[in-house]
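G.,

No rush on this.
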Amino acid sequence: MLKENSQKQVDDLGSRFTEVFIKQSENITLLLTLLEEFDFHVRWPGVKLLTSLLKQQGPQLQQIILVSPMGVSRLMDLLADSREVIRNDGVLLLQQLTKSNAAIQKIVAFENAFERLLDIITEEGNSDGGIVVEDCLLLLQNLLKNNNSNQNFFKEGSYIQRMKPWFEVGDDNCGWSAQKVTNLHLMLQLVRVLVSPTNPPGATSSCQKAMSNCGLLQQLCTILMATGVPADILTETINTVSEVIRGCQMNQDYFASVYAPSNPPRPAIVVLLMSMVNERQPFVLRCAVLYCFQCFLYKNQKGQGEIVSTLLPSTIDATGNSVSAGQLLCGGLFSTDSLSNWCAAVALAHALQENAILKEQLLRVQLATSIGNPPVSLLQQCTNILSQGSKVQTRVGLLMLLCTWLSSCPIAVTHFLHNPANIPFLTGQIAENLGEEEHLVQGLSALLLGISIYYNDNSLENYSKEKLKQLIEKRIGKENFIEKLGFISKHELYSRAGQKPQPSFSSPDHMMFDHEFTKLVKELEGVITKAIYKSSEEDKKEEEVKKTLEQHDNIVTHYKQVIREQDQQLEELKQQVNSLKSQNEQLQATLTQQVSQIQQHKDQYNLLKVQLGKDTQHNSSHSDTLQMNGIQPEEISKLREEVKEWKNKHDLLQGQLREKDSVIEKLVSNYCFCDYCQNEVKALSEEKAALKQQLDSSSSTVAILQDEKSKLQMISWCFWLIRIRK
């Protein structure tokens, strides 16, 4: 006690001295100037002094530094100091400087703080680093938390990608040091700062996509399914994954595909739900799993459908080899642990959130209660447990589930009213004067009864809107009913739950309300109050208005469908236009090429005409030469016939030669060495030689004739050109 008092006195004295020192802003300006000195014995004490002043009178000193020329820039230079002592103390100084001051945070960020701090973290070994890494992470949190401008700058600068190596863990995760646990915990919190539900939706969405694209989400899921990870890191990892996937369809689809490395492999969602409904697991871990499940289903109709489908009769695994999410939720809903009841009820309510189709489908779920008894519907089983007088936490959870299920679903309301025991039970709960601990149950019972009136389609004559309102007036009283309905929003735990989506409770006993349910209460409390006081005539008018609105909605839906189809057709036509444009471009290119070739041919033709013009004067001499050589067209024809005849002879001789060769080879191959055969071979060889000589002679003659033929063709071509020119 004495130590505490003496420390307080020292702090008060330090605060007074600091106040005196900073009254003259010149003192701070001088101190900032001294920090530019490279001398260690000047710079380091200056850093320590300024840090101490900021601890004592932070806001006042921040304003002085903010208006000082280049004040923040001078302090940023400390991060580039090669002496680690000054650099590390510079990080601590900037921590104090950036606390709760958005203007200074922006200046520090634009002075390249992110780049420098991430470099230091990498140099120090990421999560395996020492306390310097922790200090850098705390400074990064100061710069990013609740600062949308800096968050956007961090994302646009591609710094999210540099966070991925922080979460690379090996297979052996035993024996983590306390510093590593602290570092990793801060790293996970930094990820959550970027994707917090309190950030602007657009900023959160872009960060979520960046984390998926760079592989950061995949790395977090690896930690989630790894073995040997400390419990508090596992809990924070679950919370981090929750916010990275919340409301992002792409990330939610990826998370649905993650499997745990078990035998047989199970979906990560199933493994997490097993922990949630296991009463032996730590309370904070169970809360984290519930939050993860809620974030997976947030604005995810596809995921909601997959969860509900595991409860429907057609999809249940009859072999019992695998446990589904639906079976785990039902098991938790009807277990003896009230916390499991509450978590399962809230999880199932999120599977139905704003999804009327699934609310109707869930009415088909049948449960086998005991051997020999017929199955009962899930809705009936919930009301049965409700009426058995279980723990308050269990009843609150079931009432929240029923309120979510029946809201905006008249068919579910009809099923609920079809059981004659339900309405008497609710009116009995509301009418009784019970203790304060039962106020929540009474308020939720009033809400459920109000939903049964507001969403009633009057299909059951005994439980129509008018009959139920008369029952309330007779058994409870309208004022008393409204008072009991108000118990919900006046409760302290209701106010806490409405602050943020993450379930955060100091103890299991305080786990009563869900964040999304508080939104439903705000939406329905006023309309139910109005519905209770409305007369039958007003109800009729409202029904007519509803029918008119439904007709309008149907018309709008029809036109939306038409517009959708037209958009699809327009898209197809656009694709066709693009295809035709591409074909047109190709044809244009071909046409250009062909025009170019035609132009080249024209140029060659014109050149040839010029050359023929020059040679015109020699035409007569060419004609005389032809006459002198005695070459006439008749002779050309005759030469052609001779060439043809010699070719035929040549081919005949070649055939005979091949025949003789064949006979000689046959005789040789048969090894016939008698005198007759030898003489025959010799005669054939001589005959072959003679034929070859004739063949060579004819080949020579054919070559001469072909040469003459070519010359005659050239002369004929020249005559043709001359005729063209004339």
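When you get to it, here's the other one too:
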Amino acid sequence: MAATTYERLKLHVTPEKFYVEACDDGADDVLVIDRVSTEVTLSVKKDVPPSAVTRPIFGILGTIHLVAGNYLIVITKKTKIGEFFNHVIWKATDFDILSYKKTMLHLTDIQLQDNKTFLAMINHVLNVDGFYFSTTYDLTHTLQRLSNTSPEFQEMSLLERADQRFVWNGHLLRELSAQPEVHRFALPVLHGFVTMHSCSINGKYFDWILISRRSCFRAGVRYYVRGIDSEGHAANFVETEQIVHYNGSRASFVQTRGSIPVFWSQRPNLKYKPRPLINKVANHMDGFQRHFDSQVIIYGKQVIINLVNQKGSEKPLEQAFATMVSSLGSGMIRYIAFDFHKECKNMRWDRLSILLDQVAEIQDELSYFLVDTAGMVVTSQEGVFRSNCMDCLDRTNVIQSLLARRSLQAQLQRLGVLHVGQKLEEQNEFEKIYKNAWADNANACAKQYAGTGALKTDFTRTGKRTQLGLLMDGWNSLIRYYKNNFSDGFRQDSIDLFLGNYSVDELEAHSPLSVPRDLKFLALPIIMVVAFSMCIICLLMAGDTWTETLAYVLFWGVASIGTFFIILYNGKDFVDAPRLVQKEKMD
């Protein structure tokens, strides 16, 4: 079976069935989904009823079972990102969710409401930017992994051969994956970031590509998914690959990021930075070893760059990480701690060169992957930098962009694009492309995990820290605070439902969505907002005397501040917590 999926599709809908017609040249296949029995079969074009309602689609994301029954999710809009070794890469930009059922009359009012909420959750995930696919190329693997494969692997379908860590619709495709004959309709979709640029230096043209692959294992949002699970999967794990294509030669440099791989949590409680808690009873070494065993098998040597603060609430995590590496005693793992905030305080970001100089020799030893024009492997990457901070977002992205630039400098010199002695930083046009792409990558990863754009992107875009950048960081931090405390429970539930960590059972006696909240938890925030608003209004609309105005301001000010402290004291009760997955499964 060729490693491609159908590119051009038509969806034909009748009251009884969905027909997905392959419209590629020479194709006669039609995927038939029975809306009553849910059976999936393969047919031919002549079996499509002429009475069916027809429209074009660009891929099948999969199917999911909710309270009302099964739903089919299809891609209805796409945007071309670019061409990757003659393979077109697309971003899915719009989707449709189609019910198998023709009516909802079989549902109670509570079931209808639950089904509406579950649909909103699926739509929420689909509305998060960053779903990419190709019908002819395996986006889930690095160039180096793809070069080390067998002829049998090359003949597998894209779904069979995909790295399951990065197939975000793997759960949705489970029914199609069980039937190899329909795999050409099964489209693996990546979540993360992809950008491609045609660039020129010294009159030599090359393609520069950046791909971030977000793992669907232990996926979730910032404060509800931290550390590792019992299988060794790290939260917010992202594999980032930088690729250069010049005159038939291909070079690649891979880095990873992931949460500190011990069992720890940091649940929101209305404080700006909740204190991280390390689990005191878990077997940390078991999960830690599982994590790095798999990382070494996949990537080779591991060079850990831990960027967290070495004082305050982050210090115990830095110490725990260092202790675990020392206890494991593996020659394949090297640990480097760099207190980013301490070293770069007072906007001294030039001091990042201290870290780059420290790891320069190590980076040269790890090397990069290079294939010449004849397809022969010239060099292989012997390991990766595994960077982390607390969120594996802002500090991490800055360091990754600097390490990637250093590797790119070496690659372009070896390929003959850069002259001897030329610096990449001096190539103004390319530097602008490079910095903006890495900043866009930072924003994409941050929005998918923390709900806002990344911090510190002014440095990534311009090479220096600015006052405007500090103001933007403050604004994004404020939005993060709100989302992390008051909407991330819903976001976490949405991801768990989408990835199959939670399965809907319409026969459940009690819906997890129907747990009522105490009225005070709804009323107090409203009272606080009203009181604060009245305080501001009284200031803006002063009365006849300042005494009168001051009295009103004091009254409403005390009311708002008092309500705020009541909320703060009962912080956990006001936080929007996940409802679909039990707490012990998430810690």
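The chain has a mean pLDDT of 90. The chain is about 40% helix and 25% strand.

Enjoy the weekend,
O.
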